[in-house]
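User:
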Amino acid sequence: MTHNNYGLTSDDLKKCIIVRTPNWLGDAIMTIPAIKCLHKISPIESSLYVITNDNLKPLFDSIEFIKGTINVGDGHSKWRPEIVREIKALNPGLGFLFVDTFRSAWYLKKCVPKLFGASNGLRDFLLTKTFQIKWHEKKSCADEHQIYKYLNPIYLLGGNIWDGKYPKFKIISDSEVKDQRTVNFIKKGKILVVAPGAAYGSAKKWSAENYNTICDYWIKKEFGKVVILGTKNEIDSANIVSNGLDQAKVLNLAGKTNLKELIYILKNSNLCICNDSGIMHLGSVLDIKGITIFGSTDPQATGPLSKNWKVLIKKQDCAPCFLRECVNHDKDYLCLKSITTEEVIKTINETII
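Assistant: Predicted structure:
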């Protein structure tokens, strides 16, 4: 029996579903509602497997309904023959691409009888059905959140409307954290997590000196402790945040955590403050309390969807520009500089009540 107008049958949906995710943490997290709805498209909730890269594998391994993950290395290289064989052995009924690359379509077409994804012209002949995705032109504020760009094709395939809830995440146990000093630190006291970085560029980064001021306030006025997170490329910023603080109350983990530990730390925190970044998206789906600071980008398109998060933005007439660095010398990062530490502290007090 045909399931919908796109050639899916009941037999297709009884087999497993294969999904290829984006390579960036924030983008990958924004596909989770669509993946959840795709999983439920079959009355029997077919087994769903995710194809992803090295860095994101722990994220999808942590989602309870995902049956398994298939690692494609850095996500930008040729697929090894054993990857194709592994996927074929699962006997999938359909595949869905949440990336628009030709490479992923080329390899996955060898493994699945029916393949769906966004149209990009070049790869359309490989797909059973393409969907026209109207991506934000980045010249003005978006009219809808980016998650709906991923959800809408799933709706057309017959998926139910997203209920607004994220799936449960499997959190590692205390004993699975590689450095037990981390466990001992976060288990006592009020924990503020700060993440001063943003892989996109400096136009997303509130100053590390400002984060330092916020951490000093948290330690002295809220009688709490601070965990600083970031990648290896953000160690210098993390060190600026840590400088001059009571080191007994600070744990600088920039460049020292894996993704499963990052999830563990965020779930054990009282508050997270960060820029528009992957950590913001992760904190949002984990439904912890958070404050995020926006500069060159648009919270209507990529902001946190959790009601536990507050967005601070001072929109300028040149924003959102979506540039990695500010090129407006008259403004000179005014979108970020106009957000003061006093405003953030005020928001902290409103958030942790």
